[in-house]
Amino acid sequence: MGDSEAFRAAVSARAAAMLDNNTSPYEPALEILGLVSGGLPLDNGDEALESLALIWGELTDWVELRPAETDQAETHMVTTTREWLTVEGDREAEARYLGRWLHEILGFERPVLRQT
Question: What is the pTM of this model?
Fold first, then answer.
């Protein structure tokens, strides 16, 4: 199993545990952020890895920087987790999921492609 597959399996396991737990999703979200921040595997150019780091960083920062909005942030954590577990492994569905979460929901700017 390559680094990317092991990483994806670890993220999916923590995501599934988040949904099975009746407590705040914040702690499992921090665990996922730790996985994505702890040295991303570079073995096969898996584009989802960097995007997942941005998503989970933004969601955990939301709780930390705007504690009054914790309920809203945690709702997004659960939703993004459910959706990830649905699309993980289908690269086209993952790309749509990541684009929607990054750009439409969390407001990251889309990269501008250079014209040659």
Answer: 0.83
Structure tokens at 51: 């995007």
**The residue to which tokens 């504690």 are assigned:** 67
Contact 60, 18 (CB under 8 A): no
Could you say which DSSP state residue 101 is in?
Answer: I
pLDDT in tens, 37-94: 766 555 456 778 888 888 999 999 999 999 999 999 999 999 999 999 999 989 899 9
Residue 75 φ/ψ, nearest 5 degrees: -60, -45
The neighbour count for residue 3, using CB atoms within 10 Å, is: 15
Question: Alpha-carbon distance 56 to 30, whole Å?
Answer: 8
Radius of gyration of the chain (CA): 14
**Which tokens sit at 34?**
């730790």
Contact predicate 84/37, CB 8 Å? no
